[in-house]
Amino acid sequence: MKELYKEWQENTSIGDRTQKEYENIWEARILPLYGHMNAKDLKPIHISNFVKSLQKDGARLDGKKGKLSTSTINNCYKAFNSVLKFGVDMTWLASNPADNINPPTVQHAETDIYTPKEISILIKGLEKLVTLEKRTLVAIALSTSARQGEIVALEEKHCDFERDGIHVKQALIIKKDVGVVLKETKNKSDSFHYQKL
Hints:
mainly alpha, 2 domains, two-stranded antiparallel ribbon, three-stranded antiparallel β-sheet
């Protein structure tokens, strides 16, 4: 498994952020259990047992009590599956033992949102503390669905003064071994947000 994992690290085409997340999972959870095995000896029961073990108390690595979230369990499964799928694509494996294993359905917690009164208090408080530029970033964050990296990558050319809106076309990301770089938005399409400028 170690050899397959190393090849995946050097040749995978997934995004840098996702790769880093998957590497952390492999190094903390998967390699300690299966690193000694030959990839061809891995069976669906190994993947099934791995997923089941993540659903038990004590599976957290941060020392806190309680179980892992369904989202974390799914990410662990995806990390395992990504390397095994790569093994199939490279003909190292005849089939993917993770194919017919179903991780638990992700359960999304209800998100708390600011009330209009809380937003008003926040805006008034910021007027005394920060610059107009920073208040504008907060206003964009509060009124759009743009991600943090998309907001900090906004430039004047993305402002549509005729329609009082902004075009989200790029994001700042941290790229492994490079640093901070500009990248097209995830779906490569132009997101337009109405926001009084």
